[in-house]
Amino acid sequence: MGQKKFKMFVVIFAVVLWCIAIGLIIAAFIGKEDNPHLIFQGDSGKVNLKEEREATFCVGVSASIADIYPYTHNDEADAVLKKLVYEPLISINNDCKIFYCNAKSVTFEKEGREATVKLKQDKTFSDGEKLDADIVVKSYKWFMANHTAYTNLLSRIVDIRAAGDDSLVFTFTGADSDNIKVFNIPIISQSDKKGQSALGTGAYCIDSIKPYKQIVLKENKSYNGSYEYDTVLIRTVDYSDMKKLLKSQDFDMFVFNQKEQADDVKADKAYDIYEFGKDTGWFIKHNMESEVLGDAIAKLIEGQQFFDKTQTDGIYSPGVISAYIEPNYHSMLNNTSFKNIKAVSVAHDYTAAATGIYQSLEKKLKDKKIKCNEKTYGIEEVPEDFEEDLLLFYGSYKDGMTRADNKKFFKENKEIEAQDFYELLEKYFVSQKNITPISKDTVWAASLAGRDTLGLME
Q1: pLDDT digits 0-9 by tens, 90-136
Q2: pTM
């Protein structure tokens, strides 16, 4: 090779390497942009699966698979099954985003006491039977007649009836923001064969179940779509030797303990790490007689800095409903001030977390020349009704809602399409100025880098 040709080859090779490097950087960046939950990106080059494992996707769950009715438990295994086998009418993810599954639409009417459901007409169970309104009614009535993890939720249904082949009407005991969750339970078709698992409309169907060990899923041949894997396994994880668990790469996905196991997962480098917000966290509830404080207090504690000073667990939450909801509570607040406010009274329990939040809030108010008066309660004594201006409380946003809040929300929103539900509820909290979010608890999950996650990490 001549010197000029060699130099040209070196230049071209260098350019190719540079392009590849830039491409990898962009891909990594896009991956993080696409999924805000991705907090650590693993290296797919560290993944080394046996050939027979490539066509199998294995999900690890921390709770035991108790029996042959996993769709009745509303646990980790059930969450996977609702995604892959027993599709509900709607799916509600960790960000409180709603996706239609077996339903084409769900609309709340009559000030939240009734909802009309329109079904998709192309949904088919794994035995080839088409989904219709009668099957959905039977599915709900089976759950209502049997004791399951959904029993309390379903007790809010007064009546469910078919209104044609592809329509249903649900009637509730009253207006409540949790009524939306009624539509996020499995839709099943009971098999005639004794001992055989119920059927679903998802991409996979139950092949076998071994309690306390694993569930095997195979392709639903009647599903109108593609399959990423031939087989999906749901197995109980043994966390006793974390390094061995990681090295084996037997699991494509599993949840783990952030404090005790995150360092091992990161050091292994073969897994992406995702962080998801939970329902629970810390909030400030405002006494309705001190409504003027709402925006001012929220602006005072807004942002990551206040969270970092007050808590060691979870994540900062700019939203009441979810840490990831958009638009969120803080993004919709108006600028305001503490004009004419000389003192603020704050109630909280004796826990270290509550005390830490109070002390940081007290300091910020002191900087504004506002006196802070403290009232403490035992953990079991925190009142629903309180005389102080503010109450620090741990729980979910539902704990800060009254019956009057639920009625007012639905009265202000005469007709609500399910996909708009949580955005409207977030806006309601902004308008009322009675709950301010501080944080949300989180769960961490590992996912083998480069593998299709079947939408389970969305």
Answers
A1: 999 989 999 999 999 999 999 999 999 999 999 999 999 999 999 99
A2: 0.88
